[in-house]
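hey so i finally got around to running the thing on that chain from the lab meeting. sorry it took forever, my laptop kept dying and i had to restart like 3 times. anyway pasting the input first so we r on the same page abt which one it is
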Amino acid sequence: MTDETPTEEPYERNVLHEEESNFEEFSLTEDDYEIRSDVRWVRYRPSMGPIVRWGLVALVVIIVLLSGWTRLENWIDDQVEPDPTPGEEVEFSIEDGWTTNDVIATLGDLEIIDNPTMFRQWMRCPSVLKGFLNCSPGEDYSFQAGRYVLREHSSFQETVSELRKGPIPEEVIRVTVPEGLTLEQITKRLLETLPSFNEEELRVSLLDDRLKWEHYPSNLSFLLAEGLLFPDTYQLDEATVSDEMNLLLRMHRQFLKVIEEEQIEDKTKSLRITPYEAIIIASLIEEEAQLAEERPKIARVIYNRLERGWRLGIDATSRYAIGKTAGQELTTEDLEYDSPWNTRVSLGLPPTAISAPGRASIQAALNPAEGKWLYYVRTDENGVVGAHTFAITSEEFEKARKICVNKDLGCG
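ok and heres what got predicted. didnt touch it at all, straight out
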């Protein structure tokens, strides 16, 4: 040992060393011990305490959980609401008796929805987060059996919305039967419009007793549905598009409905004709009239001539008797053709209707105008195409007929 006073340099160096090493052990000699006996040792606390350390651990765990949950939510969102780009259309059918699970499974098989399991859970609870944690059974989904057209990779909401609209309507075919067609013309039109109809089946069906009207004349030895099938537009679905009898029965029922609405039985009593005769007269009016306002006048001419016992002399009956259609020129031989349907030869009304009259002609037959006219001739009076001149005397008729001849309107 020496009497030399220790300098501050070793102390400072050792303290510095202690700070740098932080509890690093080092040895002292006896001399050093005596020199450093007056050193005050300072204990340094660690840089992080247990609360901080556990706080950091918890923070890391929370970050990891949030990151994982965010990814899970993004994945769920991708299942519930896929890429907005529309997928390909897919025809999808729900069969009778299917459960909701059957529907969901098929939607998944066809890739209309991307995750059937998630879809099932979403249906239980549209709030997916709530649904995964705690969602009691919610709305009961049930969908109508039938055919749907959906898209691949649709969102859950879009899929449910489309299914709730119900199946698309079955394919509907419309067939229109205009007024004034003969039974033969109706047959041809149906066969042209409905390729699935069988001609032989259709013609056999036209002879079915179910088309017979209660007012059909008992003295006729044959059934002719002429005039008993109402001209209208009819819709056929897949189930009836090839059912000939079904359509004919619908046309006949529509006929019965219309004549009931027009009170045919009550009105024919005051006219002193039978209901079937009213239909015959309506068919004559349908063929002769081109203007609505002239139908009741033509009806009156027919009634006036019948009351006088005159031949009706209607060209349309001559065409019907020989099988010619409107627009085809009639020859002298045609006009003189011996047939009960040819009113230029036979007295009274033809035995059956000659076409399918519409409602307007039926109304005219049941509500004839008041007048003494005995003739009508087409003259296109006042430039109105189809207009007739109505005459009481033969002189008036002859004058009007000359106008018809001069205008080449078909008066010969």
